[in-house]
Write a structure and sequence with these properties.
single chain, 5 strands
């Protein structure tokens, strides 16, 4: 009986984690994201990241992206993932698109959020990640959402 309870608990945790991850709607096609942002009158938030090699990026993925407050705020923006992995496969076309976005909107370190109007004008940006403290990034998203709602 204990084994059955353990198994059910273990599967439930895995299912809830999978559900939580699925709630963030990341786009990798900026043009498509911009079309959505214009249609829904939402800001665009680009995340420049090195998902498989950057320790602060990995911590952000682990801490911030599972935070319920962040997940709820993310629904009020159009998220665009601009990843620069070193080990994960990525098409040459996507790598070129990401590099073009970096040249246009951000030439610095990762992780960095860059918030844009639906027309592509920079509103604000925030770089780095404070390990285990997603409050700063949550406050950034709140600020961006309020700025576009005005």
């Amino acid at each position: 009986m204990k084994k059955l309870i353990f198994l059910i608990s273990f599967l439930s945790i895995g299912f809830l984690s999978a559900q939580e991850k699925a709630e963030l709607n990341w786009h990798t096609d900026f043009d498509k994201a911009q079309t959505i942002a214009k249609k829904e009158h939402k800001p665009i938030v680009l995340l420049f990241t090195g998902s498989d090699w950057c320790p602060p990026c990995m911590a952000m993925h682990r801490d911030l992206f599972h935070n319920k407050e962040f997940v709820n705020l993310s629904k009020k923006v159009v998220l665009v993932l601009v990843d620069f992995p070193r080990r994960k496969p990525m098409s040459t076309e996507q790598r070129m698109k990401n590099s073009a976005l970096a040249r246009k909107y951000h030439q610095g370190g990762v992780p960095t959020f860059v918030a844009l109007t639906p027309d592509g004008k920079i509103i604000d940006k925030i770089s780095g990640y404070m390990f285990g403290h997603p409050e700063r990034d949550i406050a950034f998203f709140e600020k961006i959402i309020k700025a576009v709602q005005k």
